[in-house]
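cron nightly-structures :: item 1 of 1
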Amino acid sequence: MATEPHPVLETTLEAKAARPSPRALRRLLVPVLVAVLMTQMAVAMVTGAVRQTPTIDEPVYVATAAEYLHEHRVRLNPEHPPLGKLVVAVGVALARPHVDPSFTGTQEAAGRHLLYESGNDPWQLMLWARLPVIALTLLFGLVVFAFTRDLAGPVPALAALALYAFSPDVVAHGSLATLDVPAAGFLLTSAWLLWRARSGARRYLPLAGAALGAALATKMSTLPAVPVLAALAALSVCARRPRGFRRALLGAAVVTVTAVAVVWAAYLVVDPRLRWDAGATHVPVVHGLRGHLVRLLPFPEAYRDGMRIQFGLENRSWAGFLFGHVYSGARWYYLPVALVVKTPLGMLALWAAGAVVLVVVRRLRPAAPYVLLPAAVLLASAMTGARDLGTRYAVFLPMFLAVAAGCVLTVRRRWAPVAVGVLVAFVAVSSLRTYPSYLPYSNEAFGGPAKTHLRLHDSNVDWGQDLGRLADRLRGSYRGERVWLVYKGSGVPAYYGIDASDPRRVTPAKVHGLLVVSDSAVAEARGGLAVLLRSSRPVDEVGDSITLYRR
């Protein structure tokens, strides 16, 4: 005789069947957390983009982008290839600024003319120019997540994404219409695709070459990565066919040729006729090995001349500032020291642990060259440069080493998840405390953002980004006072309502009232300005990048 199931028991069984499994919950939680991290990063970058006035380099790139759109020629800013500025041009096109085609000044003057002398709203135009770079920075965050997930799984990928999303350097420079983050992100994308090529060379090698080409078409400083990534392409092919030497060479050739083609395509998009007038720009003559290598580059003449201009800039003597010491030239240790100052302490610890884990853990060891080698070669190249002007020259490190740091969670020790979680939380708190002023960030061991100007200068602290905030402060707290201003940046103080005089044009005895000085100018102060600062009393600061003194 069949028995009827108990109604309460039947309901309980149905409820258990309908309840999602822990694995399904984790599968749902991962995209939610990705969205949360990306959203907070987007808010941080957009907030910075809205509030910051143009930094030193941005007006040049925006004016060049406008010229690409209206004149379809390569004239301004030839020392950088076009692709990054074509990204900026997407936003410039949407802003629809008025462009004066008759203007023939320098690239710096062209930026100032477009923003402040052509009837455009610089706040609106700069925001539109920055938005495409912000979008690209967010996409590179997804590359960090995908790369780490391929190596170690979804939870380590979330940790890596968190480190990327809370990186003060990435947030600061990812919110600007500049080229550093796009170039670094394209290189990371190429390395990730080369790793994937180990299981599908035909599909991923051309894509990796395109990403490498995008980096080369954005900044010439990525050229040292070409032999590294070409070798990694060969390594990916050999992973499937250990004795396939010819196929390995073919894989490296595919990546290299595709990269070259993308560079040519970037110039052709700007000007299908590839017009270039070297006589209109001062192109230095480069001799020796450098000159021979430039002539061998399989790129358009404008690219090669841009390389010559870059070498000319490298031959100049640039002013450096490190821990209160002003010097001329470069110090090989500048970037490592600056990175220690400007990277969250928890991030530094996870970077170091991640690098060790990639080398030591057997399962991860094949990935070590793809993550560590490009970053190491690029850092070594950057350390030999002549311009000690900021950690933005090494902004690729927070990208590549975030992937390495996420892999720490593969260590099968009880302490590993707790330690990683605590360090990631420490990074998040340290980063959020500097909101919304990410450029002058330094970690707690060096006093935080308020003390960065005592140890570093230029784009580490004060890149001209706080002129608008200064105008608000002067109107709110110092209305009617006599203002003397030493501003280092590309903005026009008068446009923002700042009525100020330059104290360097008069004797120190005539300077009375409020003395306002950009912190980069304070760091390099000599002569009359140094005398003024020694006899003045600091009373206020703006954005941790501009100091107000009372005389």
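cron nightly-structures :: done
Strands lie at 319-322, 325-328, 483-486, 514-518, 537-542, 546-550.
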